[in-house]
Amino acid sequence: MAMSSTDVVVIRGGQVVSTSGATAADVIVEGERIAAVVAPGSAASTAAAEGARVVDADGCYVVPGGVDVHVHLQLPMSPEATSSDTFATGTTAAAWGGTTTVIDFAGQMKGMHVRDAVEQRLAEAEGQCAIDYGLHLSMGGVDEAALKEMGTLVDEGITSFKFFMAYPGVYYSDDGQLLQAFQRCADLGSMAMIHAENGIAIDVLRDQAASRGDTGSVWHGRTRPSRLEGEAVHRAAALAEVAGAPLYIVHLSSSDALEQVTWARQRGLNVFAETCPQYLYLSIDEHLDQPGLDGLRHICSPPLRPSTTHDTLWQGLRRDELAVVSTDHCPFCDTEKLLGTDDFRVAPNGLG
Ligand SMILES: [Zn+2]
After folding, report:
1. 330 CA to middle of ligand 1, Å?
2. Which of 10, 167, 240, 278 has its C-alpha lying 20 to 30 A from 224's C-alpha?
3. What spacing in Å lies between the alpha carbon of 352 and ligand 1's midpoint?
4. How, if at all, do strands 99-108 and 132-139 pair?
5. By the 8 A CB rule, do 303 and 284 touch?
6. CA atoms within 13 A on the CB side of 298
7. What counts of helices (H) and strands (E) characterise the chain?
8. What's the pLDDT band for 248 if we cut at 50, 70, 90?
9. Which 3 state secondary structure label does DSSP give 104?
10. CA–centroid distance, residue 30 to ligand 1 (Å)
């Protein structure tokens, strides 16, 4: 079917950025697809502009739409705290920043049907999003029914499944459950994602800190040592190797964890990882270790690390051991952050 000229947009005069650099070019968009990138002011550009919407990009860079593969819009963390960006506000903000696709999560917890979790999340997003969106499935209750349902989801387009080594009693999977889930991912050709922190050990440290009266926000970080992130990455990589599944480490925050990704990749495993801006720019000493609201505002999981980690993570990006930068966008307002005033354990910390 011929495209009517009203469906055509021509972006003229800009510097078009691609993997090979920036060059002066005009971009012809038909419908929702880039039809051609042509020489600026060329005959093809002039012909396409006839009756089309023309965007003057003179003096501007023209960049591909960003894809943020890890966001949590309107995520209820507790009865008192739901992440503050809705599907409408979050995706509108994303569009303003040049991000044209986000991937959120449907969350299945123990005792919940996977299907219900997905239907609920799709209903929340329906008609609300300003940009393209997709869903991963967070699976907190790995059982026979959930493992079976994964096959249906893959057919429907949900092809990545996130599991948790943290948050016992909420999303946590033990090693046996992880192995079964990874085996299922291998069978389906789908991707296993992992929140790699040893939650069983972390819970002990958190409770010990609280019973000593160490309840300030910095203890959120001190009770989640990077060694327990590295240990979890190593263990997850071993389980994925046994299952023959690819493994994607979400929100990698520390040198310890990166070392284990490097180890796995050198071993030839299909293990790759993302990091997030907070781990590249913020630190436990400068940001989390502050009194009151200032500290509480910097609670996230995994926690901020020492600033010496920044260089290591940037090097990881250069070497492709870190393959992706996502945001793990999961914002809360001060009212919710202040819930953690007397005990960091109560602050919404982003389930990760
Ligand atoms: Zn997350």
Report:
1. 7
2. 240
3. 3
4. parallel
5. yes
6. 25
7. 13, 15
8. very high
9. strand
10. 34
Residues 167, 44 share a domain: no
d(CA 193, CA 236): 10
**Ligand 1 centre and the CA of 76: distance in Å?**
13
98: alpha, beta or left, given left = phi > 0 and alpha = psi -120 to 50? left
Picking from 46, 62, 78, the residue at the C-terminal end of a domain is: 62
- Distance (Å) from CA 319 to ligand 1 centroid: 24
**Which residue is listed with tokens 């960006």?**
85
List the one residue out of 351, 33, 344 whose CA is nearest residue 210: 344
| d(CA 298, ligand 1 centre) in Å | 15
Cβ atoms within 10 A of the Cβ of 172, count? Answer: 20
Provide the domain limits for residue 50. 5-62
Please, are residues 24 and 69 in contact by the beta-carbon 8 Å criterion? no
Q: What is the pLDDT of residues 61-111, one digit of tens each?
A: 999 999 999 999 999 888 888 999 999 999 999 999 999 999 999 999 988
Provide the CATH number for the domain around residue 29. Answer: 2.30.40.10
pLDDT digits (tens, 9 = 90+) for 190-213: 999 999 999 999 999 999 999 999
Give yes or no for a contact between 274 and 263, defined as CB atoms under 8 angstroms apart.
no
For ligand 1, the distance from its centroid to the CA atom of residue 290, given in whole angstroms, is 23
Residue 326 CA to ligand 1 center (angstroms) comes to 9
Determine the distance separating the centroid of ligand 1 and the alpha carbon of 328, expressed in angstroms: 5
